[in-house]
Amino acid sequence: MTKAKTDTSQKTETPHGILTKFMTEQGMRKTPERYAILDVAMGMEGHHSADQILAMMPDSFHVSKGTMYSTLALLVECGLLYNHQMDGATLYERAYNVPTHHHYICTGCNKIWDLRDASIEQAASKARTPRFKKMRCSTYIYGICNICQAKLARLKKKLEKEKQAGMTREEKRFAQINEELAKAAEWFK
Known about the structure:
The chain is of the alpha+beta class. The protein has helices at 7-10, 15-26, 32-43, 50-56, 65-77, 118-126, 146-165, 169-188; strands spanning 81-86, 89-94, 102-106, 112-115, 140-143.
């Protein structure tokens, strides 16, 4: 099947025009459901599952899950949406008139943030890819966000207090000495 043109061609065409042209070239039916899903997808911000997009549909449009999934696949194929595989789930993001970007993903809360960094693009453009035509690059950086880091620190502190509550006075003193030795070792580094 034919892939959509580069991002520069999208700037001169509307999403409806791109979809219509693609469906015409592929001999596909132009249904009102497909255009309704397109309108919702073009209005969304961020990364959403098919079920979340289905929930965004207007009450006047009843779309089956099958139609939703097939239309989302169609919108990815014609270059209007990106799809991302994250922990076994597919999330969709608007691609039309959206600059190339990458993603931070928190492994604690699964939140996703967009990352725009020209150095990643430069590294990707310099990468040798024999017998392979690069079309786009998408990088995922997994880590722990500042909110989850703070939650982990509070949990660690709470567990430490609970652990110390069950210790004898002698065990507490040895723990304090051990902590002071660790600080001194850090200082000597």
